[in-house]
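Quick one, probably user error.
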């Protein structure tokens, strides 16, 4: 507490830290106060600090505060034995609660305490971080101003601070100090995120002038997300993914968990998904989580899955029954097979686009015209690594056609990539949803997720090898990058899901026109495999 000099760059001014953590008020060094004045000032400041502390504690920790209040009241009424009894009873209750229901105990007692402690930490350390980072401007009244925390939205694992920037400090200048901020606040990471949406009634929203509608970034403000703890540290069991009943929402397929504790869902309708990760990063878990969640739709016939597994079926072969067609590229004609597979799919995309033209802009999956999920386990092997240049050109052309034409008529490519290089990532912009798991170098992050993703907090190179399945997701049209972890299915789970959800017979008109030299399922009535 008190007044402290912050350095020669402040031209001999003195920063008064009692003035609070949001704005540094400046007092002239030469200004003198009487001793009585100082004492009063100190008392007022102390009283204010105590009130904020007590009220803040009671507001954020209602259960411990109520217990303390009860004990205090018993003591005040001269009932020390009753107070001792209450203390012992409360202690026994707390221990029993902790042992019997640790999750609930954490949610109701420990988490509120942590949140309160974080608020205290922001208050205590904010001004110091701003000053240390020289995020200080002097206005014409010679007041020194630092970015001010205008609002704190708190969650269990992360807080979002709305920070108002004084004139003269840019978002970019502020962003340079995120690491220092994270360290000072004891956070796992600090990131700038888009402005949280504000709820407004529809009638009001529709009447507001669109050109003044709030955008992703608000001028003069930054939204800083500080993450604490890690809800992704533990393996997420994937055996419940397919328990959605018969209905699968293709626009929100469950894959795992986000680092704010919410479910991670991926839209497969009207998009393609690029999935990159170094070897052992957990690409398989993302693919299987998607397939498991799609299980009920596969069985019902509203979705069909085809796949290309250049590893000879090592990855996708486990759940072969789920696939209408799986190319494993293990014979002498592997490259031909892969090219024919892609050309068949591109033709199907053309056919569907023709059918939908003038009738609908996007497909609503049905048994008559099902959604088609195309899993390509190693995208590079069908583009960069086909040795024959003519075949490579054909594969490139077919993949390009499939990616550009397939989205609207319900064909979604999920392409996995182990080694993101410039020549492979030429396809990146055709994948509106991009997922990057652990990568070898920081430079690969932007290649996969898009320019600026690393700067926006996607630190894929820093993901520990001990947490496979953890990664970052970027989606076209969404400014935020989300940290996620895919659920994990054991080999046994995959076999069970494949047996449970294997596709039924295909109705006339509903099958795929994939070139299928050796179908995995014998052709059934109505199957249009050419
Ligand atoms: N989401 C996950 N949660 C927990 N463990 C996982 C997860 N995903 C993968 N693993 C573990 O990591 C190992 C490697 O995962 P996986 O084979 O999916 O990686 P990959 O990226 O497909 O690697 P490669 O490209 O070499 O095939 C798995 O055997 C599994 O034990």
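Nope, works fine. Designed sequence:
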């Amino acid at each position: 507490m008190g007044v402290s000099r912050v350095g020669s760059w402040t031209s001999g001014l003195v920063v008064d830290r009692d003035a609070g953590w949001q704005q540094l008020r400046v007092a002239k060094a030469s200004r003198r106060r009487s001793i009585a004045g100082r004492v009063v000032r100190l008392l007022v400041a102390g009283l204010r600090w105590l009130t904020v502390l007590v009220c803040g504690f009671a507001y954020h920790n209602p259960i411990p505060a109520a217990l303390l209040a009860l004990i205090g009241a018993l003591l005040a009424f001269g009932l020390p034995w009753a107070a001792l009894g209450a203390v012992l009873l409360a202690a026994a209750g707390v221990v029993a609660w902790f042992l019997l229901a640790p999750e609930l105990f954490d949610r109701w007692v420990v988490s509120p305490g942590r949140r309160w402690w974080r608020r205290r930490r922001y208050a205590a350390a904010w001004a110091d971080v701003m000053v240390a980072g020289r995020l200080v401007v002097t206005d014409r009244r010679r007041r020194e101003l630092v970015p001010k925390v205008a609002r704190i939205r708190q969650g269990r694992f992360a807080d979002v601070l709305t920070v108002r920037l004084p004139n003269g400090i840019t978002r970019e200048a502020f962003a340079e100090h995120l690491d220092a901020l994270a360290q000072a606040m004891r956070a796992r990471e600090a990131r700038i995120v888009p402005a949280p949406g504000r709820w407004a009634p529809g009638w009001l929203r529709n009447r507001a002038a669109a050109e003044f509608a709030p955008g992703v970034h608000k001028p003069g403000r930054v939204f800083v997300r500080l993450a604490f703890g890690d809800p992704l540290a533990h393996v997420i069991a994937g055996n419940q993914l397919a328990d959605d009943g018969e209905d699968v929402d293709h626009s929100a397929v469950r894959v795992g968990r986000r680092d704010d504790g919410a479910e991670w869902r991926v839209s497969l309708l009207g998009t393609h998904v690029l999935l990159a990760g170094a070897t052992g990063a957990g690409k398989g878990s993302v693919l299987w989580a998607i397939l498991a969640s799609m299980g009920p739709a596969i069985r019902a016939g509203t979705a069909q899955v085809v796949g290309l597994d250049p590893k000879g079926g090592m990855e996708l072969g486990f759940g072969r029954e789920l696939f209408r067609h799986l190319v494993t590229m293990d014979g002498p004609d592997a490259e031909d097979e892969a090219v024919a597979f892609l050309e068949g799919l591109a033709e199907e995309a053309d056919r569907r686009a023709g059918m939908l033209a003038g009738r609908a802009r996007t497909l609503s999956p049905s048994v008559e015209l099902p959604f088609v999920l195309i899993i390509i386990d190693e995208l590079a092997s069908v583009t960069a690594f086909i040795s024959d240049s003519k075949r490579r050109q054909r594969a490139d052309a077919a993949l390009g056609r499939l990616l550009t034409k397939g989205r609207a008529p319900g064909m979604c490519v999920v392409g996995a990539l182990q080694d993101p290089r410039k020549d492979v990532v030429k396809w990146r912009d055709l994948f509106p949803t991009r997922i990057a798991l652990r990568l070898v170098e920081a430079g690969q992050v932007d290649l996969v997720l898009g320019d600026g993703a690393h700067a926006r907090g996607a630190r894929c190179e820093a993901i520990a090898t001990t947490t496979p399945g953890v990664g970052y997701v970027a989606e076209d049209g969404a400014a935020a990058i989300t940290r996620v972890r895919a659920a994990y299915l054991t080999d046994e789970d995959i076999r069970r899901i494949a047996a449970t959800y294997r596709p039924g017979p295909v109705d006339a008109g509903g099958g795929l026109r994939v070139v299928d030299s050796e179908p995995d399922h014998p052709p059934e009535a109505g199957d249009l495999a050419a």
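Residues 1-22, 26-30, 513-530 have pLDDT under 50 and may be disordered.
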